[in-house]
Recover the amino acids of this structure.
């Protein structure tokens, strides 16, 4: 019981006490990491014949972060800037074209 109470205390302490540095909101790598992690991991496994999970993680994490940074800077951020563009404004529907018929 002491171990479980200690673990629960640590979880709550870690959740509320430490003030970790925040990631700037204008730099979001999450989607790039989501997209690129699996292909890079599989490439490392196939090319390097590495099977140990921690070794694969140690090799792929920096590669994925670099690719995600490039993806954010040159693909995702410019694409998000287009969302408010007049080219992509919602076109008005013609009268009588109700889709709920």
């Amino acid at each position: 019981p002491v171990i479980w109470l200690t673990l629960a205390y640590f979880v709550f302490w870690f959740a509320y006490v430490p003030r970790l540095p925040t990631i700037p909101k204008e730099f979001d790598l999450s989607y790039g990491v989501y997209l690129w992690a699996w292909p890079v991991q599989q490439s490392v496994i196939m090319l390097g014949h590495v099977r140990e999970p921690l070794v694969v993680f140690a090799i792929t994490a920096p590669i994925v972060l670099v690719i995600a940074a490039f993806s954010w800077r040159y693909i995702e951020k410019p694409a998000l800037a287009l969302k408010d563009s007049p080219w992509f404004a919602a076109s008005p529907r013609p009268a009588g074209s109700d889709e709920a018929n």
Summary: Residues 9 and 15 are 10 Å apart (CA to CA).
